[in-house]
Amino acid sequence: MDTTAQTDTNGAPIPSAKMSVKPIRKHIKVLIVDDEPEVCRTVGLLLEHSGYQVVTSCNPSEGIQLVSQESFHLAMIDLKMPDMDGIDVIEQFKRIDERINCIMMTAYPDLETATAAMRAGARDYVTKPFKQDELLGAVDRACRAMGLVYTNETELNSQIGQRIREARLNRNMTLRQLSELTELTTSQLSQVELGKNAASIWALARISSALGYQLSVLLRGL
Questions:
Q1: Are 151 and 202 in contact (CB under 8 A)?
Q2: Among 74, 158, 170, 204, which residue has the least CB neighbours within 10 Å?
Q3: Of 112, 145, 178, which marks where a domain is finished?
Q4: What is the tens place of the pLDDT at every residue in 8-26?
Q5: Are 176 and 160 part of one and the same domain?
Q6: Residue 41 vs residues 44, 48, 189: alpha-carbon distances, Å
Q7: Does 133 lie in the same domain as 74?
Q8: Which pLDDT tens digit goes with each residue over 43-95?
Q9: Does 183 score more than 80 pLDDT?
Q10: Using an 8 Å Cβ cutoff, are 149 and 25 in contact?
Q11: How many structural domains are present in the chain?
């Protein structure tokens, strides 16, 4: 059996289909709100071990304040808390930031609760006591649905390029017109849109400005 690694025309090894690339999640920020410190600690450690940025709060009012002060991609919220119902917390989170995705955590799963949570804006819910694979699966599904999980720099470049192309086409702008506004060549812009080249921060700032966006808006969620 030939075990020699295959290479491309430049002599670089070609990854086999069996090789897996670990998804990149270090940019995904998750807020956990549960009145039980042990739940916050356990879920927080599990998510941190899986590569997420985690902030925890045992007080729903504090959680609401956190969401008003900083941006989170995802929030995991306990249903039954002494000071405030989890569904009320979801509704307030959504009023502050409609983009935040919420997952309800509950020890009392039933159809009525699930329906109320979804109506309030929850994407999913998980039951206590937690099964590790179910909890991580719910978080992963939510993040993938938002387009937040990518596996390598090439995929990230592709997502940025796709956003730039969509924004340009929405403004009925040609590559030549964008080139004139950014002082980048049409060839450079084409390579960026195709995800074949990583644009510098300077180049992205010029592109986003020409398209009428702040750079933070263009890159939001990536």
A1: no
A2: 170
A3: 145
A4: 333 433 333 333 346 778 8
A5: yes
A6: 5, 10, 46
A7: yes
A8: 999 999 999 999 999 999 999 999 999 999 999 999 999 989 999 999 999 99
A9: yes
A10: yes
A11: 2
